[in-house]
Amino acid sequence: MMKAYHGSCHCGAVHFECQLDLAPAGQRSKPELDGVWWTSSFRCNCSWCAKTRFWKNFARPAGFRLTSGADALTEYRFGETAIRHTFCSRCGVHPFASASFEMMGGDFHAVNIACLDDVSPEDLAAVPVIYEDGKNDAWDRPPEVTSYL
After folding, report:
1. Contact yes or no for 25/102 (Cβ under 8 A)
2. Which CATH number is correct for 2-136, 2.170.150.70, 3.30.1330.60, 3.40.50.280, 2.40.50.140?
3. What is the pLDDT of residues 96-118, one digit of tens each?
4. What is this structure's pTM?
C-alpha cells in the first residue's frame, strides 16, 4: 500500500517526503506504471550501490518532495551520467538519486530506504527485495552472491 514517508541524511541538513509502497508481495497497491521497478525494492552490486550500500525504492516525481537542504546536496554522476546521485555535503549520506529513463516511464527518484526516518525495523525486514547484477549490466537477474548486499 502506498504510504507517505519522511527521510533525511545523518546530520539532518537534508529532509524529504516521499510516497512509496514498501508492503510485502500480496499487500501492495496496483502500481501507477507497468514494470518491475514499481513492485519491489532493489539492492544492486554495481560499483555505486555496492560501495554506498544504496537500497532503493522508486518514487514518481509527484510522490517526492525535498523539504529542506537543497543547499547541502552535492551531485555526483559517472559512467553515462544519466543518474544524478545526490549526497549531503556535510555528512556524506546518499538519501536519493534521480533520473529519467523511458523504459521506467520517465522521471523518477530512487529513494534510499535506509534514509527513511519513520519505518520500523519490522517493516524494513518485510520489504520485498529484488537483487540486480549491475556489475555485469545484467539488470534482469540477481548476482550469484547476494548476502553481502
Report:
1. no
2. 2.170.150.70
3. 999 999 988 999 999 999 999 99
4. 0.92
